[in-house]
Amino acid sequence: MSDHGHLQEANDFISGHPDTQAIDLLISDLNGIARGKRIDKSALTKVYQNGINLPCSIFSMDILGDTVEECGLGLQVGEPDLVCKPVANTLHLASWHKRPTGQLLMSMYNKDGSPFFADPRHILARVYNQLATLKLTAVVAVELEFYLLDKERDSAGRIQAPISPKTGKRDQHTQVYSVDTLADYSDFLEDVSNACIEQGVPADTAVAECAPGQFEINLKHQADPLLACDNAILLKRIIKAIGDKHGFDVSFMAKPYGNEAGSGMHVHVSLVDEQGSNAFADDHKDYNETLEYAIGGLLALMPASMSLLCPNINSYRRFQPQFYVATALNWGVDNRTVALRLPAGGKESTRIEHRISGADANPYLVMSVILASIHHGISNKIAPSCPPSVGNAFDSVSTPLPTKFHQALTELRSDSVLSQYLGEQFTALYLTAKQHELTQFESHITELETLWYLNNV
Question: Tens digits of per-residue pLDDT, 185-212?
Fold first, then answer.
Protein backbone atom coordinates (compact mmCIF):
# COMPACT_ATOMS: atom_id res chain seq x y z
CA MET A 1 0.00 0.00 0.00
CA SER A 2 1.08 3.59 -0.60
CA ASP A 3 3.09 5.25 2.19
CA HIS A 4 4.28 8.79 2.90
CA GLY A 5 6.45 10.41 0.28
CA HIS A 6 10.18 10.46 1.04
CA LEU A 7 12.57 13.38 0.73
CA GLN A 8 14.47 11.79 -2.15
CA GLU A 9 11.27 11.98 -4.18
CA ALA A 10 11.22 15.77 -3.79
CA ASN A 11 14.91 16.12 -4.63
CA ASP A 12 14.52 13.97 -7.75
CA PHE A 13 11.56 16.06 -8.91
CA ILE A 14 13.38 19.36 -8.42
CA SER A 15 16.47 18.15 -10.29
CA GLY A 16 14.37 16.63 -13.06
CA HIS A 17 12.17 19.73 -13.48
CA PRO A 18 14.44 22.73 -12.74
CA ASP A 19 12.07 25.22 -14.37
CA THR A 20 9.20 24.40 -11.99
CA GLN A 21 8.21 27.48 -10.00
CA ALA A 22 5.31 26.32 -7.81
CA ILE A 23 3.71 23.18 -6.38
CA ASP A 24 0.00 22.65 -5.74
CA LEU A 25 -0.58 20.63 -2.56
CA LEU A 26 -3.93 18.86 -2.90
CA ILE A 27 -6.15 16.99 -0.46
CA SER A 28 -9.50 15.46 -1.34
CA ASP A 29 -12.47 16.57 0.79
CA LEU A 30 -15.71 14.66 1.49
CA ASN A 31 -16.98 15.48 -2.00
CA GLY A 32 -13.75 14.52 -3.76
CA ILE A 33 -12.97 18.20 -4.40
CA ALA A 34 -9.28 19.13 -4.24
CA ARG A 35 -8.47 21.62 -1.47
CA GLY A 36 -5.02 22.79 -0.46
CA LYS A 37 -2.27 25.34 -0.98
CA ARG A 38 0.17 26.49 -3.64
CA ILE A 39 3.76 26.77 -2.46
CA ASP A 40 6.98 28.00 -3.99
CA LYS A 41 9.29 25.24 -5.21
CA SER A 42 11.82 26.21 -2.55
CA ALA A 43 9.42 25.05 0.18
CA LEU A 44 8.90 21.54 -1.24
CA THR A 45 11.62 19.77 0.76
CA LYS A 46 10.23 21.30 3.96
CA VAL A 47 6.81 19.89 3.11
CA TYR A 48 8.33 16.42 2.77
CA GLN A 49 10.15 16.81 6.07
CA ASN A 50 7.41 18.41 8.19
CA GLY A 51 4.17 18.37 6.21
CA ILE A 52 1.91 21.40 5.96
CA ASN A 53 -0.89 22.63 8.19
CA LEU A 54 -4.46 22.82 6.94
CA PRO A 55 -7.70 23.29 8.92
CA CYS A 56 -9.41 19.99 9.67
CA SER A 57 -12.69 21.73 8.84
CA ILE A 58 -12.03 21.05 5.14
CA PHE A 59 -13.62 17.68 5.88
CA SER A 60 -16.83 19.34 7.01
CA MET A 61 -17.35 21.48 3.93
CA ASP A 62 -20.46 21.24 1.80
CA ILE A 63 -20.42 21.09 -2.00
CA LEU A 64 -20.12 24.91 -2.11
CA GLY A 65 -17.06 24.98 0.14
CA ASP A 66 -18.86 26.34 3.20
CA THR A 67 -18.09 24.80 6.58
CA VAL A 68 -21.01 22.88 8.07
CA GLU A 69 -20.63 23.99 11.68
CA GLU A 70 -22.89 21.22 12.99
CA CYS A 71 -20.10 18.77 12.13
CA GLY A 72 -18.03 20.11 15.02
CA LEU A 73 -14.78 20.79 13.18
CA GLY A 74 -15.16 24.55 12.75
CA LEU A 75 -15.64 27.54 15.01
CA GLN A 76 -16.72 25.67 18.14
CA VAL A 77 -13.30 23.98 18.36
CA GLY A 78 -11.39 27.05 17.17
CA GLU A 79 -10.90 25.98 13.52
CA PRO A 80 -7.68 24.07 14.37
CA ASP A 81 -4.98 23.03 11.93
CA LEU A 82 -3.72 19.50 11.50
CA VAL A 83 -0.67 18.33 9.59
CA CYS A 84 -0.94 16.99 6.04
CA LYS A 85 1.79 14.74 4.67
CA PRO A 86 2.70 13.88 1.06
CA VAL A 87 1.29 10.77 -0.60
CA ALA A 88 4.14 8.79 -2.12
CA ASN A 89 4.57 8.79 -5.90
CA THR A 90 2.02 11.53 -6.58
CA LEU A 91 4.45 14.40 -7.19
CA HIS A 92 4.27 15.21 -10.90
CA LEU A 93 4.33 18.11 -13.33
CA ALA A 94 0.96 19.67 -14.19
CA SER A 95 1.88 20.84 -17.67
CA TRP A 96 -1.37 22.68 -18.44
CA HIS A 97 -0.39 25.64 -16.25
CA LYS A 98 1.15 28.66 -17.97
CA ARG A 99 3.58 28.95 -15.08
CA PRO A 100 5.60 25.70 -14.68
CA THR A 101 3.80 24.00 -11.80
CA GLY A 102 3.86 20.63 -10.10
CA GLN A 103 1.20 18.98 -7.95
CA LEU A 104 1.25 16.62 -4.99
CA LEU A 105 -1.47 14.74 -3.16
CA MET A 106 -1.61 15.01 0.64
CA SER A 107 -3.34 13.20 3.50
CA MET A 108 -4.22 14.54 6.99
CA TYR A 109 -2.92 13.29 10.36
CA ASN A 110 -3.56 14.04 14.02
CA LYS A 111 -0.93 15.75 16.12
CA ASP A 112 0.22 12.36 17.44
CA GLY A 113 0.78 11.11 13.89
CA SER A 114 -2.29 8.89 13.71
CA PRO A 115 -4.61 9.14 10.70
CA PHE A 116 -7.32 11.79 10.97
CA PHE A 117 -10.71 10.08 11.17
CA ALA A 118 -12.45 12.26 8.55
CA ASP A 119 -9.92 11.91 5.72
CA PRO A 120 -11.55 9.58 3.12
CA ARG A 121 -8.16 8.25 2.04
CA HIS A 122 -7.50 6.94 5.55
CA ILE A 123 -10.94 5.32 5.64
CA LEU A 124 -10.11 3.37 2.49
CA ALA A 125 -6.74 2.33 3.93
CA ARG A 126 -8.41 0.99 7.08
CA VAL A 127 -11.07 -0.92 5.14
CA TYR A 128 -8.48 -2.42 2.81
CA ASN A 129 -6.36 -3.54 5.74
CA GLN A 130 -9.38 -5.48 7.01
CA LEU A 131 -9.72 -7.20 3.64
CA ALA A 132 -6.03 -8.06 3.77
CA THR A 133 -6.64 -10.09 6.96
CA LEU A 134 -8.46 -12.58 4.71
CA LYS A 135 -5.16 -12.93 2.80
CA LEU A 136 -6.77 -11.44 -0.27
CA THR A 137 -5.57 -8.57 -2.48
CA ALA A 138 -8.09 -6.42 -4.29
CA VAL A 139 -7.38 -5.66 -7.94
CA VAL A 140 -9.52 -2.73 -9.01
CA ALA A 141 -10.20 -0.43 -11.95
CA VAL A 142 -12.21 2.78 -12.13
CA GLU A 143 -14.20 3.97 -15.16
CA LEU A 144 -15.27 7.63 -15.29
CA GLU A 145 -17.96 9.15 -17.50
CA PHE A 146 -18.14 12.90 -18.07
CA TYR A 147 -19.54 15.59 -20.35
CA LEU A 148 -17.79 18.16 -22.49
CA LEU A 149 -19.92 21.30 -22.65
CA ASP A 150 -19.86 24.54 -24.60
CA LYS A 151 -18.59 27.35 -22.39
CA GLU A 152 -21.38 29.50 -23.80
CA ARG A 153 -24.92 28.94 -22.55
CA ASP A 154 -27.92 29.03 -24.89
CA SER A 155 -30.36 31.95 -25.13
CA ALA A 156 -32.23 30.68 -22.07
CA GLY A 157 -29.05 30.34 -20.03
CA ARG A 158 -28.98 26.54 -20.24
CA ILE A 159 -25.95 24.34 -20.79
CA GLN A 160 -25.46 23.02 -24.30
CA ALA A 161 -23.44 20.40 -26.11
CA PRO A 162 -20.02 21.34 -27.50
CA ILE A 163 -19.23 22.35 -31.04
CA SER A 164 -17.25 19.63 -32.80
CA PRO A 165 -13.64 20.74 -33.44
CA LYS A 166 -13.77 18.81 -36.73
CA THR A 167 -17.15 19.79 -38.24
CA GLY A 168 -17.65 23.18 -36.58
CA LYS A 169 -21.24 22.15 -35.82
CA ARG A 170 -22.87 21.64 -32.48
CA ASP A 171 -23.18 17.97 -31.55
CA GLN A 172 -26.78 16.79 -31.68
CA HIS A 173 -26.30 13.04 -31.43
CA THR A 174 -23.57 10.69 -30.30
CA GLN A 175 -23.33 7.11 -31.46
CA VAL A 176 -22.17 5.10 -28.47
CA TYR A 177 -18.72 3.58 -29.11
CA SER A 178 -18.43 5.74 -32.24
CA VAL A 179 -14.84 5.88 -33.45
CA ASP A 180 -15.74 8.89 -35.62
CA THR A 181 -16.76 10.85 -32.51
CA LEU A 182 -13.43 10.00 -30.88
CA ALA A 183 -11.69 11.23 -34.04
CA ASP A 184 -13.58 14.55 -33.86
CA TYR A 185 -12.19 15.14 -30.37
CA SER A 186 -8.82 13.48 -30.94
CA ASP A 187 -6.75 16.57 -30.01
CA PHE A 188 -8.46 16.81 -26.62
CA LEU A 189 -8.18 13.08 -25.97
CA GLU A 190 -4.53 13.01 -27.05
CA ASP A 191 -3.68 15.82 -24.66
CA VAL A 192 -5.46 13.98 -21.85
CA SER A 193 -3.48 10.86 -22.69
CA ASN A 194 -0.19 12.77 -22.69
CA ALA A 195 -0.97 14.39 -19.34
CA CYS A 196 -1.81 10.99 -17.90
CA ILE A 197 1.53 9.60 -19.08
CA GLU A 198 3.30 12.61 -17.59
CA GLN A 199 1.62 12.05 -14.21
CA GLY A 200 1.84 8.27 -14.20
CA VAL A 201 -1.94 7.88 -14.36
CA PRO A 202 -2.63 4.54 -16.12
CA ALA A 203 -5.42 5.61 -18.47
CA ASP A 204 -6.50 2.81 -20.75
CA THR A 205 -9.38 3.26 -23.21
CA ALA A 206 -11.54 6.21 -24.21
CA VAL A 207 -15.12 5.64 -25.34
CA ALA A 208 -17.76 7.91 -26.87
CA GLU A 209 -20.83 7.48 -24.68
CA CYS A 210 -24.59 7.75 -25.19
CA ALA A 211 -25.13 11.52 -25.37
CA PRO A 212 -23.70 14.52 -27.24
CA GLY A 213 -20.39 15.47 -25.66
CA GLN A 214 -20.33 12.48 -23.28
CA PHE A 215 -17.20 10.34 -22.98
CA GLU A 216 -15.75 7.65 -20.74
CA ILE A 217 -12.10 7.16 -19.85
CA ASN A 218 -11.05 3.96 -18.12
CA LEU A 219 -8.13 3.36 -15.80
CA LYS A 220 -6.19 0.11 -15.91
CA HIS A 221 -6.56 -2.50 -13.19
CA GLN A 222 -4.26 -2.00 -10.20
CA ALA A 223 -3.53 -4.18 -7.18
CA ASP A 224 -3.61 -1.14 -4.88
CA PRO A 225 -7.05 0.43 -4.25
CA LEU A 226 -5.52 3.54 -2.68
CA LEU A 227 -3.35 4.18 -5.72
CA ALA A 228 -6.30 3.47 -8.02
CA CYS A 229 -8.35 6.14 -6.25
CA ASP A 230 -5.42 8.58 -6.23
CA ASN A 231 -5.32 8.11 -9.98
CA ALA A 232 -9.08 8.65 -10.30
CA ILE A 233 -8.74 11.98 -8.46
CA LEU A 234 -5.84 12.97 -10.72
CA LEU A 235 -7.66 11.86 -13.87
CA LYS A 236 -10.65 14.09 -13.07
CA ARG A 237 -8.28 17.01 -12.54
CA ILE A 238 -6.49 16.27 -15.82
CA ILE A 239 -9.72 16.03 -17.82
CA LYS A 240 -11.04 19.31 -16.43
CA ALA A 241 -7.77 21.16 -17.04
CA ILE A 242 -7.29 19.83 -20.58
CA GLY A 243 -10.94 20.48 -21.38
CA ASP A 244 -10.51 24.11 -20.36
CA LYS A 245 -7.37 24.34 -22.47
CA HIS A 246 -9.42 23.22 -25.50
CA GLY A 247 -12.25 25.65 -24.81
CA PHE A 248 -14.70 23.22 -23.15
CA ASP A 249 -16.36 23.12 -19.80
CA VAL A 250 -16.11 19.66 -18.26
CA SER A 251 -18.68 18.23 -15.87
CA PHE A 252 -18.74 15.10 -13.75
CA MET A 253 -22.23 16.03 -12.56
CA ALA A 254 -24.29 12.86 -12.32
CA LYS A 255 -27.18 14.14 -14.47
CA PRO A 256 -26.55 17.44 -16.26
CA TYR A 257 -29.35 16.89 -18.82
CA GLY A 258 -32.79 15.62 -17.88
CA ASN A 259 -33.32 13.78 -21.17
CA GLU A 260 -29.84 12.35 -21.67
CA ALA A 261 -27.78 9.66 -19.94
CA GLY A 262 -26.17 10.43 -16.62
CA SER A 263 -22.48 9.99 -15.81
CA GLY A 264 -21.41 7.08 -13.65
CA MET A 265 -18.28 5.81 -11.96
CA HIS A 266 -18.14 2.07 -12.55
CA VAL A 267 -15.69 0.09 -10.43
CA HIS A 268 -14.30 -3.34 -11.40
CA VAL A 269 -13.09 -5.56 -8.55
CA SER A 270 -11.44 -8.95 -8.41
CA LEU A 271 -9.57 -10.63 -5.55
CA VAL A 272 -6.23 -12.40 -5.75
CA ASP A 273 -5.14 -15.02 -3.19
CA GLU A 274 -1.66 -15.59 -1.76
CA GLN A 275 -0.72 -17.76 -4.72
CA GLY A 276 -1.62 -14.99 -7.16
CA SER A 277 -4.74 -16.77 -8.43
CA ASN A 278 -8.09 -15.11 -9.01
CA ALA A 279 -10.10 -15.88 -5.85
CA PHE A 280 -13.39 -15.48 -7.77
CA ALA A 281 -12.57 -17.92 -10.57
CA ASP A 282 -13.80 -21.48 -11.06
CA ASP A 283 -12.59 -24.09 -13.52
CA HIS A 284 -16.07 -25.33 -14.40
CA LYS A 285 -18.45 -22.36 -14.17
CA ASP A 286 -18.58 -18.57 -14.46
CA TYR A 287 -17.75 -17.91 -10.78
CA ASN A 288 -17.21 -19.63 -7.45
CA GLU A 289 -18.63 -19.50 -3.92
CA THR A 290 -16.28 -16.72 -2.81
CA LEU A 291 -17.66 -14.45 -5.52
CA GLU A 292 -21.20 -15.33 -4.47
CA TYR A 293 -20.39 -14.29 -0.89
CA ALA A 294 -18.91 -11.03 -2.19
CA ILE A 295 -22.11 -10.41 -4.16
CA GLY A 296 -24.11 -11.26 -1.03
CA GLY A 297 -22.25 -8.64 1.00
CA LEU A 298 -22.52 -6.01 -1.72
CA LEU A 299 -26.28 -6.52 -1.99
CA ALA A 300 -26.74 -6.57 1.78
CA LEU A 301 -24.98 -3.23 2.34
CA MET A 302 -25.97 -1.49 -0.90
CA PRO A 303 -28.98 0.40 0.57
CA ALA A 304 -26.82 1.76 3.41
CA SER A 305 -24.06 2.59 0.89
CA MET A 306 -26.22 4.64 -1.44
CA SER A 307 -25.59 8.07 0.09
CA LEU A 308 -21.83 7.54 -0.38
CA LEU A 309 -22.13 6.05 -3.86
CA CYS A 310 -24.55 8.82 -4.88
CA PRO A 311 -23.69 11.75 -2.59
CA ASN A 312 -25.75 14.63 -4.02
CA ILE A 313 -29.39 15.44 -4.72
CA ASN A 314 -28.68 15.42 -8.44
CA SER A 315 -27.09 11.96 -8.15
CA TYR A 316 -30.52 10.35 -7.97
CA ARG A 317 -31.67 11.81 -11.30
CA ARG A 318 -29.59 9.06 -12.96
CA PHE A 319 -31.91 6.31 -11.79
CA GLN A 320 -34.04 5.89 -14.87
CA PRO A 321 -34.20 2.41 -16.47
CA GLN A 322 -33.87 3.60 -20.07
CA PHE A 323 -30.39 4.91 -19.26
CA TYR A 324 -28.91 1.58 -18.04
CA VAL A 325 -28.82 2.50 -14.35
CA ALA A 326 -30.15 -0.20 -12.04
CA THR A 327 -32.91 0.83 -9.66
CA ALA A 328 -33.05 -2.43 -7.67
CA LEU A 329 -30.89 -4.93 -5.84
CA ASN A 330 -29.83 -7.35 -8.56
CA TRP A 331 -26.84 -8.97 -10.26
CA GLY A 332 -26.11 -11.03 -13.31
CA VAL A 333 -23.58 -12.46 -15.74
CA ASP A 334 -22.69 -10.25 -18.71
CA ASN A 335 -25.81 -8.13 -18.13
CA ARG A 336 -25.73 -4.31 -18.21
CA THR A 337 -29.23 -3.92 -16.73
CA VAL A 338 -28.14 -4.95 -13.21
CA ALA A 339 -26.42 -3.24 -10.29
CA LEU A 340 -23.61 -5.80 -10.09
CA ARG A 341 -22.40 -7.24 -13.39
CA LEU A 342 -20.01 -10.11 -13.95
CA PRO A 343 -18.34 -9.14 -17.25
CA ALA A 344 -17.64 -11.74 -19.90
CA GLY A 345 -14.10 -13.06 -20.19
CA GLY A 346 -11.81 -15.90 -19.30
CA LYS A 347 -11.26 -17.47 -15.91
CA GLU A 348 -8.50 -15.09 -14.82
CA SER A 349 -10.63 -12.02 -15.64
CA THR A 350 -13.54 -13.08 -13.40
CA ARG A 351 -14.59 -9.95 -11.58
CA ILE A 352 -17.48 -7.81 -10.36
CA GLU A 353 -18.43 -4.54 -12.05
CA HIS A 354 -20.17 -2.27 -9.55
CA ARG A 355 -22.43 -0.01 -11.64
CA ILE A 356 -24.28 2.17 -9.12
CA SER A 357 -22.01 5.08 -8.15
CA GLY A 358 -22.14 8.42 -9.93
CA ALA A 359 -19.19 10.27 -11.44
CA ASP A 360 -19.84 12.94 -8.79
CA ALA A 361 -18.87 10.60 -5.93
CA ASN A 362 -15.64 10.59 -3.95
CA PRO A 363 -13.59 7.63 -5.31
CA TYR A 364 -12.06 6.84 -1.89
CA LEU A 365 -15.49 6.54 -0.28
CA VAL A 366 -16.93 4.54 -3.19
CA MET A 367 -14.04 2.08 -3.00
CA SER A 368 -14.34 1.94 0.79
CA VAL A 369 -17.98 0.84 0.78
CA ILE A 370 -17.38 -1.66 -2.05
CA LEU A 371 -14.46 -3.35 -0.29
CA ALA A 372 -16.21 -3.18 3.09
CA SER A 373 -19.25 -4.90 1.59
CA ILE A 374 -17.10 -7.60 -0.02
CA HIS A 375 -15.28 -8.20 3.28
CA HIS A 376 -18.61 -8.38 5.11
CA GLY A 377 -20.00 -10.88 2.62
CA ILE A 378 -16.99 -13.19 2.56
CA SER A 379 -16.37 -13.05 6.33
CA ASN A 380 -19.99 -13.92 7.13
CA LYS A 381 -20.61 -16.20 4.12
CA ILE A 382 -23.62 -14.18 3.02
CA ALA A 383 -25.45 -15.71 0.10
CA PRO A 384 -26.92 -13.32 -2.50
CA SER A 385 -30.42 -12.20 -1.56
CA CYS A 386 -31.66 -12.96 -5.07
CA PRO A 387 -30.71 -15.24 -7.99
CA PRO A 388 -28.76 -13.78 -10.92
CA SER A 389 -30.96 -11.82 -13.32
CA VAL A 390 -31.35 -13.06 -16.87
CA GLY A 391 -32.44 -10.72 -19.66
CA ASN A 392 -33.83 -7.26 -18.96
CA ALA A 393 -33.65 -6.80 -15.19
CA PHE A 394 -35.70 -3.61 -15.44
CA ASP A 395 -38.73 -5.79 -16.24
CA SER A 396 -38.28 -8.10 -13.25
CA VAL A 397 -39.52 -7.68 -9.68
CA SER A 398 -36.64 -6.93 -7.31
CA THR A 399 -36.10 -5.12 -4.03
CA PRO A 400 -35.89 -1.42 -4.96
CA LEU A 401 -32.90 0.73 -4.11
CA PRO A 402 -33.38 4.01 -2.24
CA THR A 403 -33.46 6.36 -5.23
CA LYS A 404 -34.09 9.59 -3.31
CA PHE A 405 -31.40 11.30 -1.29
CA HIS A 406 -33.42 11.46 1.94
CA GLN A 407 -34.12 7.72 1.67
CA ALA A 408 -30.42 6.99 1.21
CA LEU A 409 -29.46 9.07 4.25
CA THR A 410 -32.09 7.26 6.32
CA GLU A 411 -30.68 3.89 5.26
CA LEU A 412 -27.16 4.86 6.34
CA ARG A 413 -28.45 6.36 9.58
CA SER A 414 -30.23 3.16 10.54
CA ASP A 415 -27.40 0.78 9.55
CA SER A 416 -24.88 -0.48 12.08
CA VAL A 417 -22.62 -2.65 9.89
CA LEU A 418 -21.29 -0.14 7.37
CA SER A 419 -20.68 2.49 10.06
CA GLN A 420 -18.35 0.03 11.81
CA TYR A 421 -16.22 -0.15 8.68
CA LEU A 422 -16.24 3.59 7.99
CA GLY A 423 -16.00 4.56 11.65
CA GLU A 424 -18.95 5.79 13.70
CA GLN A 425 -17.40 9.24 14.09
CA PHE A 426 -16.95 9.60 10.34
CA THR A 427 -20.44 8.27 9.59
CA ALA A 428 -21.99 10.81 11.96
CA LEU A 429 -19.98 13.63 10.37
CA TYR A 430 -20.92 12.54 6.84
CA LEU A 431 -24.62 12.30 7.69
CA THR A 432 -24.55 15.73 9.31
CA ALA A 433 -22.82 17.35 6.32
CA LYS A 434 -25.12 15.74 3.75
CA GLN A 435 -28.30 16.38 5.74
CA HIS A 436 -27.26 20.04 5.84
CA GLU A 437 -26.94 20.08 2.04
CA LEU A 438 -30.32 18.43 1.61
CA THR A 439 -31.98 20.89 3.99
CA GLN A 440 -30.39 23.83 2.17
CA PHE A 441 -31.50 22.50 -1.21
CA GLU A 442 -35.07 21.82 -0.11
CA SER A 443 -35.43 25.33 1.30
CA HIS A 444 -34.93 26.76 -2.22
CA ILE A 445 -38.02 27.54 -4.32
CA THR A 446 -37.40 26.49 -7.92
CA GLU A 447 -38.57 28.27 -11.06
CA LEU A 448 -40.65 25.23 -11.96
CA GLU A 449 -42.53 25.41 -8.66
CA THR A 450 -43.32 29.06 -9.29
CA LEU A 451 -44.43 28.29 -12.83
CA TRP A 452 -46.70 25.43 -11.76
CA TYR A 453 -48.19 26.72 -8.54
CA LEU A 454 -48.01 30.52 -8.26
CA ASN A 455 -51.22 31.21 -10.18
CA ASN A 456 -52.73 27.75 -10.41
CA VAL A 457 -53.56 27.01 -6.80
Answer: 999 999 999 999 999 999 998 888 778 8
Helix ranges, 289-416 (H): 289-309, 363-379, 405-414
Where do the H-state alpha helices sit in 39-102? 44-50
For residue 7, how far is the Cα from the chain centroid?
29
First to last CA, the chain: 60
How far is residue 331 from each of residues 177, 367, 383, measured CA to CA in Å?
24, 18, 12
Rounded Cα distance, 134 and 375, in Å: 8
- Whether residue 427 contacts residue 419, with contact meaning beta carbons closer than 8 Å, is answered with yes
Pick the residue with more confidence: 205 or 175?
A: 205
Residue 90's nearest CA partner among 37, 43, 34, 26 is 26
Question: What's the whole-model pTM score?
Answer: 0.95
User: What is the overall mean pLDDT for the chain?
Assistant: 94
Domains and CATH numbers, the chain: 129-422 (3.30.590.10)
Longest CA–CA separation in the chain, Å: 71
In angstroms, what CA-CA distances link 171 with 100, 124, 144, 207? 34, 39, 21, 16
